[in-house]
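Structure, all two chains, one model.
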Amino acid sequence: MKRFLLTLVLFAAMLASCIPVDLNAPIPIFDTGVDPGSWAQVPAGEFYFGQHEDMETTDSYEIMITDVTSQQYADYLNAALADGTLKIDDDFVLGYYPGDEFRGVKHELEIKAGDWTYIPLADPSQRVKFDGSLFTVQEGYENHPMTMVTWFGAWGYCGYYNYRLPSEKEWTKAARGEDDRPFPWGDEVARENANFYSSRDPFEDMSSFGSRTSPVGFYNGKTYDGYATLDSASPYGLYDMAGNVWQWIGDVQPQEGFSDRLMHGGSKDTYDMDLRIWVRNSAPPMYYSPGVGFRCVR
Amino acid sequence: MQFIKTRFNYLFGSTKGLILVAIAMVAIVTAVFGMLSGPMAEMGVREVVINTLGMDIVQAEREGRIVILYHSIAMAIIAIETYMVTGLLKIKEFFKMSVRVLITVGYVLTMVFGMGFAYFGHNWAFHGLYITGLSLIFFAGVLLCIALWPWDPAYYLPSPSGRGVGGEGDYARTKNGVDLERVAFFTTAVTTVLSALFGAVPGSFFGNGFEVFLAENIIRLPEKTTMEYSVIGHLHIMLALIAIMITLIIGRWLDFKGIWHKVAMPLMILGCIVLNLGVWGVVTPLEPVAHMIIYVGATPSMLAALFLLIWSWGKFAKEGTAHLAKPTFLQKLGAMVSDPLKFGPTWQMLFMNFTTSGIGIFMAIRLDEIFRMWPAREERIELTGHWHALSAIIATIILMYYGDMLGLKGKVRQLYGWSIIFLSDLALGAVTVLEMKRLFISEAEQQPLVNTLMYMIDFGLGFLLVLLAIVMVWRLTDLFKPKGRWTEEATRELAQEVVK
């Protein structure tokens, strides 16, 4: 009898792990009051770069105060498809990329000039939908960061508007300012600072779909239906520089033969340790995920 | 006073007492500091522990804390293995005493002051004592190498009664009588001491500027400095050497001998040397082929462990069915697994191929096609997961041998042994599936699976720690008894309890 019960419990546990996840479960809708079309000015000068706080400098530049939203990206897709910059092929949006110099280093991926996937259309995690003529955003996700976008797709978006992806140094300075803080808002992290794994925000359900993205600028000190956030802007007023989604970095081959593209900021799917400003992630440029987005500089 | 003196002599003067203290230290550190990450952090336990114990934790210094934590636990494990080696092999009393004193003071200093420095504010005197502890352990290692010198005729196996049992052909030996098992122990000890330098040199180099890093975070960068390679090599080889040493220890405990022993010991020596040469090669111009040398070295070492497994399982099956005229396969199988504490260590070595070696080989073969197409953070989960699994397996093997040292019998022995096997394998199997989950489930749909796996991991490791806590409480209460089990253990040496 005991063995039967044990087997039953184990079997139930295995079954529980196979429960299908409703990726379209209703999501709370909040207006954060933060304008994703805004830019912040970052002055030229020195700053602390990396875990070991090397002194580096940047020129002055402007950077988006939030990640690019799904609505912004859908608008771009409509415009770029109409003028022939992009094309649709077999449930993928493709765009041209001029390729990387290939050096033949061990593990290096050859990125040739040609059409590369910007976003997948058929993936159930994709929030931007295409009806054959128009790109629209799934209701509730309009002001969420654009995800399921490859590095090529992020590069293409920024380039289309004569912007560019931030270099690692630019991204770091925008997040950190001129002191040595580990998080954009300061020295410590609380659950109300950012959207990270099991941070108990209104968008997650760890028993089902897990963590989901939050609207850009959500952690601005406002209270949403009783959920009070902390104002977690960076020294230059940028939101979501830690948590929510990893952000693609523009550097190509920061080391000779390193074909991955860097990502920074941690995401809804990572523990708070990955939200520290200097923590690097990387993936091949064709990688896309519900936890990766981007913002641009100019 | 006599009460304290006799207990102190047992705890710090006898092999089993020393092992008990070290296991207790590791158990405490694992239980307390394990609550600072993973699910415990999710549940908010981390904050409670930090506040209750008055820890002073700075986010920016996580990597440094972890490096000291790993070293603290590893030094205690190395101490346990040293106690076992000096308890099992013939060693001159002066060396035995010196090695044990040095390594005991060393690991206690390392653990207490290292953790004090890392987690309770940065008292630099503590850091100095931490380094002193590591240095003492190094000296203990050098002395152990001298003590193990296998070409001393006193340790030869010259006659059929070389170890007091069996015929001349029972153990691996040279024509001159050099004990090849002792050579294997010696080789492992020497290479361990040399490989420690591989960490000490870059440790000093980076420590000077406090540029601590975790190897898994730089694994994808094609350009690494010599010192970075040295750190990566150091952590890999030290864990491998700890695993090789525990394999030799288990072999000695079970009285590994016969033809399998004769084949296994030369393989173990060869594998250990080649493996080390490969790892040391990462800081030389041999770096491009270093991995190939490592594979070449790992193969004979693992074969030697396999031969131990084949020999021991065969022995258990044969001895357990000796009373039967024609035992069936099932009867042999039953006999083989009848004593979980003897069957368990080699089973865990086999299981390791699922959680560690198999994963490592699979990753190496399909690295570019599969694993490098995933984000670096996924690769980090695989890397840290598989060596945590190996560490845990080594710990369980130690605990099973310790269970035998305790003289556990009957149902308690069965319960203790099978609990360790079942709980650890459940947890480590789940860890392995967690590492590889991207092969069969998407990021968006993984949460229910992740939850189930985390429950399995928490259940397995949690109850394993509870089991360990029960043993530790039992041992603590035993110490208060005038004629407790400790009085017997104080005078028994491991060599007397080798399985015959």
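The mean pLDDT of chain A is 93.
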